[in-house]
Amino acid sequence: MHIDVALARICVAAALLPGLAAQTTLPPGESRHEVSFGDRSSTVIVHVPAGLDAPVPLVLGLHGWFGSGAGFCASTRMGEHADAMGFIGVCATGDGSSGENSWNAAGCCGSAVTQDVDDVGFLRAVVGWVDERAELTEKYTLGHSNGAMMAYVLPPCLLAALRCCCRVGLDTGS
Predict the structure, then answer these.
(1) Distance CA 116, CA 105 (A)
(2) How far apart are CA 46 and CA 90, in angstroms?
(3) CB 78 within 8 A of CB 91
(4) CA-closest candidate to residue 72, choices 151, 150, 170, 144
(5) Is the CATH number of domain 3-17+28-168 2.40.110.10?
(6) 27: DSSP letter
(7) How confident is the model at residue 21 (pLDDT cuts 50, 70, 90)?
């Protein structure tokens, strides 16, 4: 069983509440969209379950250092789980200006840190972009390695927006 299965089930199960008819301008299935923040523009992968009939949770997937949003979506089978459990899955890619795709997770990792990339602002823009196009209930993060660190940084920054974060492969030193 992939690590994402158990974590996604834990994170999302509590959010599957009945609601009113959902409105979304996002196409069902997997699609790619450009989201801009400041001078940064990045492709995000969005998976929307077919036949949405209620507001749904959002799960934001964050890859590890040197990974990508596309790789994270594929390796976690985000779309398959989104369809089965009724959430919108979104996978973003960290700063790749030096070819390494990293997140600025308050001290780690790579060029995102050395260049002081505003990944909190970027991920706020990603969540806001989806929120403008779909009726969302709760918002969750799911991260691996450097993405897990970023998931750990986000809740205090987005306290009103994020309900839960799941981290895999994160050693906090304690």
Answers:
(1) 10
(2) 5
(3) yes
(4) 144
(5) no
(6) P
(7) very low
